[in-house]
Amino acid sequence: MPSEQDLRQVQETEIEALRAIFCEDFEQIRTRSSAKTLATPFELRLKIRTEEVELQDRVRINLRTSAPLSHHSADFGP
């Protein structure tokens, strides 16, 4: 089992990557509220819009998602 510090680092790296990819279309809604609670999720919103200029006001998706810090445990294997 990876340490909580390792999991937090992986999560921060993922958040930075999403912020770099989505720029102004990325919003971090909530961060971990407690350093002692491994299951506290981060929550984010991604705005996904069409590249078609004439449709941008009518076609878009606002994706809001959250994930607990512990979801990274599977990435580290047994």
From TrEMBL:
Residues 13-78 form the RWD domain. InterPro entries: RWD_dom, UBQ-conjugating_enzyme/RWD. It holds the Pfam family RWD. It comes from the Eukaryota. Gene3D superfamilies: Ubiquitin Conjugating Enzyme. This is RWD domain-containing protein.
